[in-house]
Design goal:
This protein has six helices and ten strands. By secondary structure, the chain is of the alpha+beta class.
Length: 226
């Protein structure tokens, strides 16, 4: 994989990687090269063992949580999920956040979006909703964000595990919740695995309205599968 001046390469034969390194050095000059089964890449800690890849961003999560608690007080230690049944509910009469908290809401939610896509797919449903609220966040949204942070604090040691039991079988699960948003749009959730952990996941509001639960599920399959 490539990201600006950072790249990650793997191959079963060491010579192939050596040749690639020589090409890169010849083209771009001396560079730092990390080899082995443990790596740091774009903030992620990557550990490879027995055919399993473990991904974490514990340092970034700790900093995010610590900075928030210094500014706004301790988070709940009893939270066991990133959202509750009222996650998608919008209180039309809720007080809008002041300018500082609104900016912090936007910044923290964006940071969690980055983390979620890489190492914490379990918060995707909550973050997909909160990202839609960054331009009009209110005190109710603030409490929902605090719940996500509290959940992450209480599960800080969880890591993402990815592996494969087969390179020819890809499993996907897709579902939809009918008319759960304030504009009566439905919500799609889906994930894909090669046998161990998830290689991809998605949780998002559907782009069009549907007339029934059955129709929303058909739309969900269409939106998720390539």
């Amino acid at each position: 994989s490539w990201h600006v001046d950072d790249c990650l390469a793997s191959h079963k034969e060491k010579k192939v990687l050596d040749d690639l390194a020589l090409i890169m050095i010849r083209e771009f000059g001396d560079m730092e090269i990390s080899r082995g089964k443990d790596h740091s890449f774009l903030g992620m800690e990557i550990e490879v063992s027995d055919g399993i890849v473990r991904l974490s961003m514990k340092k970034q999560l700790n900093k995010l949580i610590t900075d928030f608690e210094k500014e706004y007080g301790c988070l709940d230690n009893e939270v066991s999920s990133p959202g509750n049944r009222q996650l998608f509910n919008i209180k039309m009469d809720a007080e809008q956040l002041d300018e500082k908290r609104s900016k912090d809401f936007h910044s923290i939610t964006a940071a969690l979006l980055y983390l979620m896509k890489r190492v914490r797919p379990d918060i995707e449903t909550a973050i997909s909703f909160l990202m839609r609220r960054v331009s009009k966040s209110d005190v109710d949204d603030w409490w929902k964000l605090k719940r996500v942070l509290a959940y992450l604090k209480n599960s800080i040691d969880d890591v993402r595990v990815v592996g494969a039991t087969s390179l020819t079988e890809i499993l996907s699960w897709i579902d939809a919740s009918f008319a759960v948003h304030s504009d009566m749009k439905s919500h799609t959730g889906g994930c894909t695995s090669m046998g161990i952990g998830l290689v991809h996941q998605k949780s998002s509001t559907q782009k069009s309205n549907s007339k029934s639960s059955c129709e929303s599920e058909i739309i969900g399959v269409s939106e998720y599968l390539p």
